[in-house]
């Protein structure tokens, strides 16, 4: 800024600013304060600024209680993040003033009150911390439920679960039923986060209620009842689920599919089969959907492999998907040399080597081998 004399200045606009403004000359004498500054600190004009970087002889001088944020004679704009005065927080900008000869004349300081903004930021950080802690707790609960698959005689159960976020929309369960039957399913909820994880809990407890409470033991009927229960929530969300019932006495596996496009694979040393079956996802849009039923005869050594599309939709640097075919071929490649957890680890490793960048979706794998 340039000026010949301070009296030539026009401070009408400055006077109406909400920010606190003051001007001091090269001796540190405060020669002007605007209306906002006068309300905050009275009788400042005629006092001297107290500079934090120099020793000042205080004799015969009256100093302002509001210290300066830049040394007298500074040549460049100076800002400070925070200056606390009288219980208020200010962001201060100090700008030098030069006369027509480009000689240092003094300084103008603008104090912006950021007390409420600081409080809002602190409240936001506190709220975010609470949400993070809640999500970590919910994630631990969800992972704990996934990890506690029931031991079932005659079956070797293994799983692999990798969440792209703290909370996942992928879920699976194995439920031992009376009469030597076993219910097994894998589900994939639209989206991630808290809402998706809540739906996985709904699926878990609803399926168990249907098979234990209502004694429903047919895949199609379970999915139809599950769809009706979900429609009561009136949520604009959906999920896919592949559910089957294995009868250990007859070795028959009956299954139905509600829109789950990651088709489970039935394999042994000599075969690889996809349990292909169509069906609509479970959603408020498809409340009256019917579901087809498939059947497969299982033998000693047969393995059912369930998975979610986070695996097959993994992309490389060319944005090319890993795909069903690559996964199918990987299973065929490793099935004779690896079993159980080792096989799942190898399949995930194969996908990880294909992936470029971060994992974008949840990955869930569940294997059920007949002993």
From TrEMBL:
Database matches in PROSITE patterns: PAC
Keywords: Hydrolase
SMART domains: PP2C_SIG (SM00331)
InterPro entries: Bact_Sigma-Reg, PAS, PAS-assoc_C, PPM-type-like_dom_sf, PPM-type_phosphatase-like_dom
Residue stretches making up the PAC domain: 76-126
PANTHER family, alphabetized: STAGE II SPORULATION PROTEIN E, STAGE II SPORULATION PROTEIN E-RELATED
The protein's name: SpoIIE family protein phosphatase
Lineage: Bacteria, Bacillati, Bacillota, Tissierellia, Tissierellales
């Amino acid at each position: 800024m340039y000026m010949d004399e301070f009296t030539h200045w026009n401070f009408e606009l400055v006077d109406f600013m909400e920010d606190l403004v003051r001007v001091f000359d090269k001796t540190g004498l405060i020669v002007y304060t605007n209306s906002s500054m006068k309300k905050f600190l009275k009788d400042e004009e005629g006092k001297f600024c107290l500079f934090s970087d120099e020793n000042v002889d205080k004799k015969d001088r009256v100093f302002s209680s509001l210290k300066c944020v830049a040394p007298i004679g500074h040549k460049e704009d100076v800002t400070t993040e925070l200056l606390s005065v009288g219980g208020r927080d200010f962001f201060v900008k100090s700008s030098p003033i030069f006369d027509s000869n480009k000689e240092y004349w003094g300084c103008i300081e603008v104090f912006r009150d950021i007390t409420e903004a600081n409080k809002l930021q602190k409240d936001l950080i506190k709220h975010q911390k609470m949400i993070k802690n809640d999500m970590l707790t919910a994630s631990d609960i969800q992972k704990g439920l996934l990890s506690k698959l029931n031991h079932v005689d005659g079956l070797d159960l293994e799983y692999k679960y990798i969440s792209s976020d703290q909370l996942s929309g992928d879920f699976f369960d194995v439920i031992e039923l009376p009469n030597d039957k076993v219910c097994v399913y894998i589900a994939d909820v639209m989206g991630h986060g808290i809402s998706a994880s809540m739906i996985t809990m709904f699926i878990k407890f609803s399926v168990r209620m249907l098979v234990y409470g209502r004694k429903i033991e047919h895949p199609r009927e379970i999915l139809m009842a599950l769809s009706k229960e979900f429609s009561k929530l009136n949520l604009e969300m959906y999920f896919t689920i592949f559910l089957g019932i294995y009868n250990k006495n007859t070795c028959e596996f009956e299954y139905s599919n509600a829109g789950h496009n990651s088709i489970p694979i039935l394999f042994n040393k000599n075969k690889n089969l996809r349990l292909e079956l169509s069906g609509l996802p479970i959603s408020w849009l498809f409340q009256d959907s019917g579901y087809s039923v498939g059947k497969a005869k299982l033998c000693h050594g047969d393995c059912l492999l369930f998975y979610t599309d986070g695996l097959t939709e993994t992309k490389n640097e060319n944005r090319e998907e890993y795909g069903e075919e690559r996964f199918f071929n990987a299973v065929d490649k490793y099935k004779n040399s690896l079993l159980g957890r080792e096989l799942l680890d190898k399949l995930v490793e194969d996908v990880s080597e294909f992936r470029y960048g971060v994992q974008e979706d949840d990955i869930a794998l569940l294997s059920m081998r007949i002993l």
